[in-house]
Amino acid sequence: MGAQLRVYRRRIRSTKSMAKITRAMELIATTRITKAQRAAEAAGPYAREITRAVSALASRVSDHPLLREAENPTRAAVLVITSDKGLAGAFSSNVLKEADSLSQLLREQGKEVLTYMVGRKGVGFYKFRGRPLEAQWEGFTERPTYAHAQEIGSALMEKFALDTAEGGVDEIHVISTEFVSMLTQRASTVRALPLEVEEVEASELEAAQGAPLPLYEFEPSAEEALDRLLPQYVTNRIYFALLESAASQQASRRAAMKAATDNAEELAKNLTRLANQARQAEITNELSEIVGGADALAAASAGSE
User: Fold this and answer.
1) Which parts of the chain are beta strand (E)?
2) What does the pLDDT read at residue 286?
3) What is the pLDDT of residue 200?
4) Structural domain of 136
5) CATH number of the structural domain spanning residue 85
6) How many domains in the chain?
7) pTM of the model
């Protein structure tokens, strides 16, 4: 019985130590969420304004290589944004599932898929399964910068500018995690290129954006302005996706660590109850042995008289 009690006490100590570690990781993730949210909010105004400018340009330019749909698209690039570290629940696995679903859909449409991966988790997942990667980036998913987005955007834009016969692609898709709230993050897919221009009324656009549509004058021409703005627009979308993914990663890690802490504390309570029961059984057994010994001595003394 003493050996069993020692086992319980050792497990209680290790469980409480684990709870302290997960609690600390939860607090760290909480502080990093705030920083990541601030970075995303700071990038928001520029993202909105460049989107408005590109929308205005796209409405004036009817035929542009970055707006034109290929007649028979045969190749598509898919950028997948995962994390560099684990202990974030289903964060990376949800993105990878979304990537598998999109890749299957594109292949069913007769398109070859070129995968571009961000994050060690995604890179390890693909390499372990022997899946090819066109390019990969690691080490900055928790603190992405605009320079990282430019590097990724340049690689994708260079591929999009090439003809498919020369190894280029007809489409670019971005799969990342959208930060909805502290409790909700969801994997989403966006087609970055070619741009999808929707025909809507100006009044509807004004109502949706909460402000009158801007009146731009383009020099030397709308086409040349679009040539300059579209690469920046794509880079900015990638940057914003990286920032939202960083915030979502920390929120998912915080939730996972909180669940781990709660489970460890509950396990420690259960183990403490089992240890108390084992200790009580041990004391009861010792008392029984003492009482039995006393009765035996009393019987022996009565017999000798």
Assistant:
1) 75-81, 112-118, 135-137, 171-179, 185-193
2) 75
3) 41
4) 26-256
5) 3.40.1380.10
6) 1
7) 0.81
